[in-house]
Design goal:
Strand order of the largest sheet: 1-2-4-3
Strand content: 5-15%
Structural class: alpha+beta
Keywords: Flavoprotein, FMN, Oxidoreductase
Pfam families: Nitroreductase
CATH topology of the largest domain: NADH Oxidase
Helix content: 25-40%
CATH architecture of the largest domain: 3-Layer(aba) Sandwich
CATH superfamily of the largest domain: NADH Oxidase
Number of helices: 12
InterPro entries: Flavin_OxRdtase_Frp, Nitroreductase, Nitroreductase-like
Shape: globular
Number of strands: 4
Radius of gyration: 21 Å
Protein name: NADPH-dependent oxidoreductase
Largest sheet: 4 strands, antiparallel
Domain Nitroreductase: 30-184
Order of helices and strands: HHHEHHEHHEHEHHHH
Number of domains: 2
Length: 288
């Protein structure tokens, strides 16, 4: 499926030639990722869902602890309630399925109790481990779905209201919703692969280096401005409500990102998570 300007994947976008031995469909699928937020009413069959879940469960997991759980949400009313909780997102309503990937130590506690052992792994490391396990499962599920022509978008705002989401999904203490994934058949062909930061900014050889950071940021600004990624999406600078909507030739990723990071309110859902530490602890995880 061709994207914006006929560019199908990041290899094409960045002019990277793949050796024939590496030009697999898996490689192309991963490099063609584009978050899609509009879905048709076509249902997702049980066989397709089983395949996606199997791929998700095949993700790496630290020490084989498998400290995650996946909640499958198909019920329309429940999906609508979740859509409200995650910022009134239409994509969650439209998608035939929403998967919620959770960090889960409830099961590990149960295993320790079953075996007559104390659970002593209530640590910050365990929360990170379980969250990474959940995120890896989500990525596998998304890649699997995209490999067969489906589309999806991760939903980080399941963390906006952890207690309410937990109540909606009947999550026991020790289970925390890390990220959702709306899945379905895409309504349109999408806007195409979005430019990413140059490799010089994000990939480091042997040791971290910021030697070419300014050059990389300048190049990325030019790319995002040319593509019009932030056209009409300006945020205020320094609390000034006036948006410089006509200054499109200078408003790129750097300005947009600096404005968002300078004020939590501009991070949207992130401003709702100011009490996330306390909410994570209420869900049964230690951050010590």
């Amino acid at each position: 499926m061709s994207g914006h300007g006929g560019i199908q994947n990041r290899f094409e976008l960045e002019g990277i030639e793949l050796p024939s031995a590496w030009a697999s469909e898996t490689m192309r699928t991963i490099a063609a990722h584009e978050s899609r937020r509009s879905f048709t009413a076509e249902p997702l069959g049980e066989q397709a869902l089983t395949a996606i879940l199997t791929a998700a469960r095949s993700a790496p997991t630290s020490s084989n602890l498998q400290a995650y759980s996946i909640v499958v949400v198909r019920d329309v009313e429940r999906k609508n309630r979740l859509a409200e909780l995650v910022g009134d997102q239409r994509c969650v309503r439209e998608a035939p399925v929403m998967l919620v990937f959770c960090a889960d130590i409830f099961r590990l506690r149960a295993v320790c109790e079953r075996q007559g052992q104390p659970f002593a792994a209530d640590t910050l490391e365990m929360f990170l481990l379980a969250s990474v396990d959940a995120a890896l499962c989500m990525q596998n599920a998304l890649t699997a779905a995209e490999s067969v022509g489906l589309a999806g978008v991760p939903i980080g705002s399941v963390r906006n209201e952890p207690d309410t989401v937990a109540a909606e999904l009947a999550l026991p203490r020790g289970v925390f919703a890390v990220v959702g994934l709306a899945l379905g058949s895409p309504r349109d062909s999408g806007r195409g692969v979005k430019p990413r930061l140059p490799v010089e900014a994000t990939v480091h050889r042997e040791r971290y280096s910021a030697e070419r950071l300014d050059e990389a940021l300048e190049a990325y600004d030019r790319a995002t401005i040319a593509r019009g990624i932030y056209r009409g999406r300006h945020v205020p600078a320094g609390g000034d409500p006036e948006l410089d909507a006509d200054d499109e030739d200078r408003y790129g990723w750097c300005e947009h990102t600096a404005r968002r990071c300078s004020n939590p309110e501009h991070l949207g859902a992130a401003s709702l998570r100011r009490h996330l530490r306390e909410q994570v602890r209420r869900r049964g995880f230690s951050l010590d």
